[in-house]
Structure formats: C-alpha cells, structure tokens
Specification:
By secondary structure, this protein is mainly alpha-helical. Helices cover about 70% and strands about 0% of the residues. It holds the Pfam family NusB.
C-alpha cells in the first residue's frame, strides 16, 4: 500500500471535510471513513483503495464524523440564527459550511470561534459565492456571539 504522506494544513483538512460531507449528502448510507479515504485519495492523486484508514488525518475524521453525528443539533442551532430563512432554503454548500464552523465553535475548544468563522468564509469563497459569504458571515457571527456569551 502506497502512503499518502502529505502534510495537510488545517485549512486543507477543512476543505477535505467539506468535500466529504458534500459527497455524503448525496449518499448518507455510505460510511464516513470510505468517503474520507476517497477525498483524501483524490487530493493525493492515488486510488482510494491505497489510502489506509490510519493515513486519514485525525482532525479530518473528527470534523467529518463529528458533523455527521451532531447534525441534528447543529441544524437546530443554525435554524435559530436564520433571519427570515428556513434551513431547507439554504444551499447544500452553504449549509455544510455552516455545520462545519458551528461544530468547531461548539465542540472544539482548541479552535477559537473567530478562526472557525474566518475559515468558513474562506471555504465559502472557494466553494460558493459573494452573496453566500455575506449570509454565512451573518449567521456564524450570530452563533459565535451566542457561543462566546455562554462560555463566559
């Protein structure tokens, strides 16, 4: 088995987590680990069969599995911060970015909420559009203020 010994930055890991969660949104029965192996293989340009589970960065697994596991709670929180919007109206792309950042804000104490917000805006720049960036910024800023006030 060939190693995909690629050092990934946290931003690259978030990109891969986004891609995995986006792919999973079309096939929720597929195990997260399989999807992670596939997106990691694609990024390293090797066949998915050659990516061992042990090669998947732990932070990537944490994000993808965490968002998947906590999706109902994340969606509920996101819904409470939508101004005149319903969750069903949000594009898949934007919703997945919102879920990723909200997961980091709520469950990962080693990631400052402001970093999660900025990373989400970068993902929005890469995978969505300008209108979405403003929308994602507004929703996540509201969530960030709530999270910050609850931690104090």
């Amino acid at each position: 088995m060939r190693k995909t010994s690629v050092e990934l930055t946290r931003h690259q890991i978030r990109q891969l987590a986004f891609q995995a969660l986006f792919a999973r949104s079309f096939n929720e029965a597929q195990p997260v680990a399989e999807i992670l192996a596939y997106v990691l293989a694609e990024s390293a340009d090797v066949p998915a069969e050659e990516v061992a589970t042990s090669e998947i960065p732990s932070y990537l697994t944490l994000l993808a599995e965490g968002v998947t596991e906590k999706q109902p709670e994340l969606d509920e929180l996101i819904s409470t911060h939508l101004n005149k919007w319903r969750l069903e109206r949000i594009s898949k792309t934007d919703l997945i970015i919102l879920r990723l950042a909200t997961f980091e804000m709520l469950y990962l104490d080693n990631v400052p909420p402001k970093v999660s917000l900025n990373e989400a805006l970068e993902l929005t720049k890469e995978f969505s559009g300008d209108e979405s960036r403003r929308f994602v910024n507004g929703v996540l800023s509201s969530i960030m203020h709530k999270v910050d006030s609850e931690k104090q």
